[in-house]
Amino acid sequence: MLLFMKVLFTQFIAEMGDKTQLMLVAMTSKFKLKDILLGTGVAILVLNGLAVLAGGLVSTVVPTWLIRLIAGAAFLFFAATTLKSDDDEEENVKDRKIKFAPLSVFCTFFVAELGDKTQLTAITFGANEGLSAAVVVWLACSLGLFAADVIGLLIGYLLKSKAPEGILNTVAFFIFSIFGILTLRQGFGLLLGAESSRILPLTVTVTVAFVIVCLVIYKKRKKVEV
Known about the structure:
Helix content: over 70%
Number of strands: 0
Mean pLDDT: 80
Radius of gyration: 19 Å
Shape: globular
Order of helices and strands: HHHHHHHHHH
Largest sheet: none
Number of helices: 10
């Protein structure tokens, strides 16, 4: 029980204020609570299971730079989709959203969390305690991480119900955009080397392209609303 509480508390503190927690706050503008809980819960169980039992096998097999680039692209994709009009896909894609929303949450959270400090914490506890305590460490890590993320979700839905209409979408857009650009920059740095002169031009190019795409989407939305 002491080990369980120690691991749970450590994971809870490590996740507070982390990018994935803020990401879930932003996701409340796009998905239903049950979809986020399902996708996040499964992703946490899978990630911590891999970290504890396999010693971070996923992080060693998949290059960190690729993980960062995929995560950054996912963040920017969600940022762009927050700009779409609510009526654009409401009729034709409603059922598809219900079916695939948990999967979208799962994939985004899974990629974003790979190599994060909470996963490294799970790997450390798993290595220190050995396979005999693997189940205890796995459950404690998962519950600690999930508890912190639930707090983020509650904050997001509180903002959604109390804040002026559209404000949460705006907050979500900036959260996803900032994390997306910063994560892509990390990926470029890992791929090309931290001192590479190509990192800044690549980051600027992606940022400009992203801004152009967002402007196009925003203009289309305004035309639909008019």
